[in-house]
Amino acid sequence: THLGHAATYVAFDVLVRAWRDGGHEVLYVQNVTDVDDPLLERAAETGQPWDELAAGQVDLFRADMAWLQVVPPTQYIGAVESIPMIAEFVERLRTAGATYEVDGDVYFPVRADERFGSVSNLDAETMKALFAERGGDPDRPGKKDPLDPLVWQRERPGEPSWDSPLGRGRPGWHVECSAIALHYLGETFDVNGGGSDLVFPHHEMSASHTHVATGRWPSARAHVHAGMIALDGEKMSKSRGNLEFASRLRAEGRDPAAVRLAVLSEHYRADRAWTADMLAAAEGRLARWRAAVAAGSGPDATGLLDEVRRHVADDLNTPAALAAIDRWAEDARLHGGPGADAPRLVRDMTTALLGVPL
Question: Are 99 and 93 in contact (CB under 8 A)?
Fold first, then answer.
C-alpha cells in the first residue's frame, strides 16, 4: 500500500462514514486482483509461488488498512475465488454475441456497446494511448478494434489456469470487476470508486461489460475518482519505483491519525505531492487537536458538528472540515469553555467522521 493507495481508500472510508452517520445502511464491496501478469512476473523474479505472494500482499494491505483506521468493507472479494462467477459472466457476454476469439483468447468488442466512451469522455487516440499504457494490447493482430479488451485468456504454459466453459484459462482484468459488482451489488448501485488512473480503461470497460450483459444503464450511478499522489515530482507507481509505503511509516512508529490528516488536508480529487513537510504539518495539527480536547473544557461544538457534516457532504470537502476543527481548537486554547461536553463531542466527531481518534 503506497500512499496513493492510502489516500484513495481513506477518501472512500470518509464517504462510508458520512453515509453511516446519516443513518444509511452501506453495502461496501472491495475486490482484489490476486492473479494477473504483474503478480506472475514478480513471482518469477523472486522464485516465490504466485499464490503465496498474492496472499502475503493481501495480508499486508489489510494490515495497512486496519492501521489507517479504514472501516473494513462488507465484502472483500478476490478474483481467484470469483473465477466461476466471472466465467459465467463471460458466457453471458458470449450469449449476447459480444465476444470473439483471437488464437483462443476471448475478447469483448467495444462496438457492441453504443454507450462505450461515456464514462471517460475521451477521444479515440487518447483512449488508445492509455489502453497501451495501462495493460491493454491495442496492437495485437486479429483484433476487431484496438480497444477491445481481453475477457478470458486461454491457458499459458507454466501459468495458473482454471477449468471453465470457455476452456482452461483465467479472466481479464476489467471483467472481474463487472462480474463481482453484479453479483454482490446488483445491476445498479450508487458509487463505483477508485483512483483517477482507473477512469480509462478500467471503469470504462467494466461499465460496458455490465451494460451489454444486462441491458441496464448505468451500472454505477456515479463514478468517483481520487487524485494521484506524487513523490519527487512523479506519480507514485510500481513501474517508477518512487513509492512511500504505509507499512514503512507504520514500521517507523508514525501515528496513523497524522497520516490520515495529511492525506485529508487536500481535496481527494486533487493531484498532489507527498512530502515530509505534509506529514510534519499533520502531526502538528493532531497535537493541537489533542491538546484542546485534553484540556477538559472548550467552546460549544454543536455548530462545529453541523459545519463538519456540511463540508463532508459537499463532495468530501475535508480541507474545509479540518479548518473548522482548527478554529475550534484555537478558540479552546485561547478562551476555554463551559464544560467537558464540547471536547467529548469533538473527540467523537473526529473519530467517527474522519477516522482520526483523539
Answer: yes
